Amino acid sequence: MSQSKGRFGVHGGQYIPETLMNAVIELEKEYEHYKNDPDFVRELDDLLKKYAGRPSLLYYAEKLTNTLGGAKIYLKREDLNHTGSHKINNVLGQALLAKKMGKTRLIAETGAGQHGVATATAAALLGMECVVFMGEEDTKRQALNVYRMRLLGATVIPVTSGTATLKDAVSEAMREWTSRIDDTHYCLGSVMGPHPFPTIVRDFQSVISKEAREQILEYEGRLPDAVIACVGGGSNAIGSFYNFIGDESVRLIGCEAAGRGIDTFETAATVNTGRLGIFHGMKSYFCQDEYGQIAPVYSISAGLDYPGVGPEHAYLHDIGRAEYVPITDDEAVDAFEFLSRTEGIIPAIESAHAVAYAMKLAPTMDKDKIIIVTISGRGDKDCAAIARYRGEDIYE
Amino acid sequence: MSNIASAFKNGKAFIPFITCGDPDLETTGKLVREMAANGADLIELGIPFSDPTAEGPVIQAANIRALSGGVTTDKIFDFVAELRRDVKIPLVFMTYANVVFSYDAERFMARCCETGVGGIILPDLPFEEKDEFSAICKQYGVDLISLIAPTSADRIAMIAKEAEGFIYIVSSLGVTGVRSQITTDISSIVKVIRENTDVPCAVGFGISNPEQAAKMSQYADGVIVGSAIVKQVAEYGREAAAPVGEFTAKMKAAIV
User: Fold this and answer.
1) Which residues of chain A does B62 touch, with a Cβ-Cβ cutoff of 8 Å?
2) ipTM over 0.90
3) What residues of chain B lie within 8 A of the CB of A12, using their CB?
4) Angle at the Cα of A48 (from A44 to A52), degrees rounded to 5?
5) How many other C-beta atoms are found inside a 10 Å radius of the C-beta of residue A342?
6) Three-state SS string across A179-199, please?
7) Is A278 in contact with B67 (Cβ distance < 8 A)?
8) Global confidence as pTM
9) Contact between A373 and A360 (Cβ < 8 Å)
10) What is the DSSP code (8-state) at residue B22?
11) DSSP-assigned letter for residue B155
12) What confidence tens digit (pLDDT) does each residue in A287-338 have?
């Protein structure tokens, strides 16, 4: 009898080539050991505090709140972390784990480049080799991040297969891992892929909601009414939700990239438009055709431009614990500009999807209600692309 | 039980792989007939998938050619049914778990059974996940082919004990594709397999010429060749049947 592991309801599992099975089994074993190892925990905690700059601020966006005229809005400022996004939380954990496991080389996929930059950063810090796979399309729309990774000593490999975006970067990183396992750890950037990745990445990202919960209790003396985060694979969202899952009164809202709209083919809103399937090592919801061919998805945001969603999100959707709402390119760009002007905070275009939904939701709520919006990353990397979207050509 | 066992009765088995619908199903039909006539013992038919994560560039490109040509799982089943009027050679499908899952595994296996497809290879379905499909496969007499890799180590015995049809030994780390050298100790892997099952085993991944095939056939019961053939299909397109037939004859001669 065989035994499937890492299930979230029907989702999850380990749908990967036999070549990788012993690698993920070893990873699970080592992770289970180190996550309870006091030295490992202390070392990681130290890195998060002294290197990444945690805890991140929970900022009361008073002007935004007053402008929208409804619920109080707090921003969980993951954009203030070192490297400019939440990705560093997971990467420091995995890189440290890989180092303890005796690995000397990190490989990673990246969409917007934030995970690639974080991985290249951790590799530089811990003295490891780093190779990042990035869709060729994304290397163009996120050229600044490509340069940052190279500056940090990483090799960036543009992926030309398929749609040349995040999905293809994941496929190529998996292919690379099957060819070189001994010295290499695949530092997966989201709560996706085969078990144990969805669990490991969630655990490392759950620091977001651990802090946010403590902070909001300190500032307001009560829990929020809603937590909003953007969802591609879903790592910042699961990190933002995780410690609130048991708090039934807290609405958990994931914002998917609807691209040009969920009634068009140019969308990446997986929960809203996808079906149950098996891909990239997991069972979950995927955008696909009737024969199971994975759809070429689209979003203005390279980080959300992915045809699947992490298995735990699929499960939270199934049981009705979290809601997943579509946000279009237009709405996200409006929110990107709105938050910049209102609060002086330029969010990543990914995070702008969460801001966009807060802009819809807050005015419908009473003034004594509280919303936490996770700003998963900073938007400097997106300025040139947004300018182009608005018809202005600027040099990066 | 499928008809796969008969493929291993004529000396060492030569098992070529092609992608259905590359560049069109008419060509696939010609290729199957030509390979069968030239000594292939079992043919692996790929059902294309948009994102074949276990494939190297050669077979990835074949998947794209086939899908852009408009081939679908339904068209492939209809094609195999048509093929079965005169082609008796054992056939297995090679595709990805999502292709079977999205078609509905039961409906998929029922059609395999109807069209005489004796087995299925799903490279993204390891031992731990096979129960989801194996009961349905059994019900319809379709062998769910197990893969064993150079990294399988302590897993070989466990996999071999539950293997059906044949065991696909992955010769090398990495993805499919032509390799100049195969360094894995295949004989040690086969030894452990033999201690645990009588199911025949065939070696694939990277084998591209008669010399490599001859060497691999010393250890295993069969040799699987994919990328080297798909390369010829890419080069000759609709005229590929003749060169692929010639190549098949050479490979079969090398391993008998």
Assistant:
1) none
2) yes
3) none
4) 140
5) 18
6) HCCCCEEECCCCCCCCCCHHH
7) no
8) 0.97
9) no
10) S
11) G
12) 999 999 999 999 999 889 999 999 999 999 999 999 999 999 999 999 999 9
